[in-house]
Amino acid sequence: MDYRRIIPCLDVKAGRLVKGVHFVELKDLGEPADAAKAYSEAGADELVFLDIAATIEGRKTTLDAVRRTVEAIDIPLTVGGGISGTDDIAALLDAGASGVSINTAAVREPGLIDKAAERFGGRHVTVAIDTRSNAEMPSGFEVMVSGGKEPSGIDAVEWAREVERRGAGQLLPTSMDADGTQAGYDLPMTAAISEAVSVPVVASGGAGELEHLYEAIAQAGADAVLVASIAHYGKFTMAQIKEYLRDRGVAVRP
């Protein structure tokens, strides 16, 4: 059975769970491990842990926070933030992460994707792609780096094709335009990337209603949906999300 996955995202800064809008206006939501444990017990399929300030602050991901989170759950955890080489990836996997997400470092040094896929296997390597609408790009979407603060001049769809060629096992495109708005995923961007690659694509950025999750899967071809605001603030439970999707013919795990 080809299940669609529900993946809560834990944005972490200074070891604390936070959530913002358009990558800013961050609110403190508590201890990441506590939220991770609750999601794991509630039926989330996986979790993503993003140390959102690590790259900007020029440091590595906080390993202690990762270890605490791993110890609290029994589902896969993908970790991103502050990764600049394969030794950083090894440290995160040794800390218990099931995979890593690389973003800015991959844009700065595309060969890192090849090295990571060769050393650890592509299934452990997700490439996150932060995007913003830009009519000057062939696809209409530009890759952003450094926590979404800097334009790269790279077309998002072309970059998605390249990272797949280099061995990435999964893509995580996030719309900066939609992030935190709860107005819905950027369906055109998600669909453009999904259609361009054969590896799994995780829709991210902007979910606010259950129908948004369904649209990302049914209309944009996403293999999984990342959720944050609608889950962190208690708007919908994992059970409600899965029941809604199941009732609309989407295969989800119990």
Describe this entry's structure for a reader.
The chain is an alpha/beta fold and 254 residues long. It is 35% helix and 26% strand. The chain is built from 10 helices and 12 strands. The protein has helices at 32-42, 63-72, 86-94, 104-108, 111-120, 156-165, 187-196, 210-218, 229-232, 238-247; strands at 5-13, 16-21, 24-30, 47-51, 77-80, 99-102, 125-133, 141-145, 150-155, 170-175, 202-203, 224-227. Strands 1, 2, 3, 4, 5, 6, 7, 8, 9, 10, 11 and 12 form a 12-stranded mixed β-sheet that branches. α1 runs parallel beside α2 (63-72) and α6 packs parallel to α7 (187-196). The radius of gyration is 16 Å and the shape is globular. It starts with a strand and ends in a 7-residue tail after the last helix.
